[in-house]
Design a protein that fits this description.
mainly alpha; 19 helices
């Protein structure tokens, strides 16, 4: 009787587990869709309300903030995921890891702001902004960066503890407050600087809640862990050049159009990017559910299966979005407003670029979560060679040209990530055996 019961339980458990996982995922996605709809509403309101010069300033500011954020990370996020996936159940030990990451990220943030801040001011002024206005926008960007980096470390705690409702609450705080403030400003006075400061308010609220909630799972006053610091510095040493390159590559389309184009072209590139909002929803699922689980897996078979399931999902999603864009370009451009209705061909190219970027970002996220980054530096010479060639044959002063440039520049990165994945799979059994021996 006991044997029969055990067999029954073993048969029924997997379907029940699958149903539970599906229910958790559907609940998360439904709430996340609402959050992203608020974010999309904010973005579309800005596209429609701001003049093309103002939206160009907003696009430049967001691009440079993203650049500073990547430089200020430089592999710390990889260390948090790879180490945190092993120590997240130990409150004191997890606190040591978090405080170590915060200390290192502050140092890197100062370096990033010092290096990139003057470039931001120069780009704004060269595209028509006054010195005072450029300084105001830069202050907003630096404030957002400060709180964004704090939240970026602390958010690892609820994610690794699978506290999905808390993660969603934090996302809603940022998106909801930003939408309300932008809508209120629209009725009074709205420009690029006001829109940026509206985002700062939401991030500050997120940090306040995170500071309060994380005390349940970490020791806030835990000391810096020398071993974690050494591990992270080792990752930073290998990753910093790659991170610096990634931040250039990721924002290169905006930079090129800012230098060689004009404010109208900058605004058009930024506006077209708003229509790839679906990838923000998928990215939220990746960061909040899939990657923390992927970091905890210890079975080589499960790791391989989950990897291909995620990548296959991204491929199918990209193909569906590209097909929808090809069939209904006018309806999608209507969302952006009459100022952008002439960008039908550019919209299709942008959706192909967004889909390819989303796929490669997913591959990189999965690889870095397992710390499969040993040869990631090869991306730098590969992409530089490709982009030098492309600059000789493509006119990057046009919206179409800069999108094609960005799309073809992804080829070396795609090939490298495929190589990192295969290398990681090949060494899975050895790495897991070494980890188990060290426990």
């Amino acid at each position: 009787m006991e044997n029969r019961l055990a067999v029954a339980v073993s048969v029924l458990a997997p379907p029940r587990l699958m149903v539970a996982r599906a229910r958790t995922l559907s609940q998360f996605v439904s709430v996340q869709v609402a959050v992203q709809l608020m974010a999309a509403a904010s973005g579309i309101l800005l596209v429609r309300a701001l003049s093309k010069p103002e939206y160009a300033y907003f696009t430049i500011a967001n691009s440079m903030q993203a650049t500073m954020g990547i430089l200020a990370d430089s592999g710390i996020g990889i260390g948090l995921s790879s180490i945190g996936g092993k120590v997240w159940q130990d409150r004191h030990r997890f606190g040591e890891l978090i405080n170590t990451a915060l200390r290192l990220r502050r140092y890197l943030a100062v370096i990033a702001a010092t290096a990139v801040g003057p470039i931001l001011v120069w780009l704004l002024i060269s595209n028509g902004a006054s010195t005072f206005y450029a300084a105001t926008i830069t202050i907003a960007v630096l404030l957002a960066l400060n709180y964004q980096l704090l939240a970026g470390v602390l958010i690892v705690v609820p994610r690794l503890h699978s506290q999905i409702s808390r993660v969603q609450t934090l996302d809603a705080i940022v998106a909801g407050s930003r939408l309300l403030l932008i809508a209120a400003a629209y009725l009074v006075f709205l420009n690029a600087a006001v829109a940026l400061f509206a985002g700062v308010v939401g991030i500050i609220g997120q940090c306040i809640f995170l500071r309060h909630w994380t005390t349940d799972n970490i020791e806030p006053h835990a000391p810096i862990n020398r071993e974690d610091r050494a591990t992270m510095l080792g990752i930073i040493k290998h990753q910093a050049p790659n991170a610096a390159f990634y931040c250039v590559q990721g924002q290169l389309t905006v930079w090129l159009i800012s230098v060689f184009g004009n404010t109208q072209s900058i605004a058009e590139v930024g506006a077209l990017g708003r229509l790839s909002i679906i990838f923000s929803i998928i990215n939220s699922v990746m960061v909040s559910i899939i990657l923390p689980a992927f970091a905890r897996y210890q079975s080589p078979k499960v790791i391989r299966r989950r990897y291909f399931q995620v990548i296959g999902g991204f491929v199918l999603l990209g193909l569906a979005l590209i097909s929808a864009t090809a069939l209904f370009p006018g309806q999608l451009l209507w969302i952006l407003g009459a100022k952008y209705m002439h960008l039908g061909k550019e919209l299709l190219l942008m959706m192909v670029l967004s889909s390819a970027s989303g796929l490669i970002a997913a591959m990189w996220s999965l690889n870095s979560t397992r710390a499969w980054i040993r040869y990631s530096w090869l991306n730098i010479p590969g992409v530089i060679l490709m982009q030098i060639t492309l600059l000789l044959i493509i006119d990057v002063s046009t919206v179409k040209g800069v999108i094609v440039f960005g799309l073809l520049s992804l080829i070396p990165t795609l090939l490298l990530n495929a190589f990192l994945t295969l290398s990681g799979f090949a060494n899975l059994n050895r790495d897991l055996a070494l980890f188990n021996e060290s426990k």
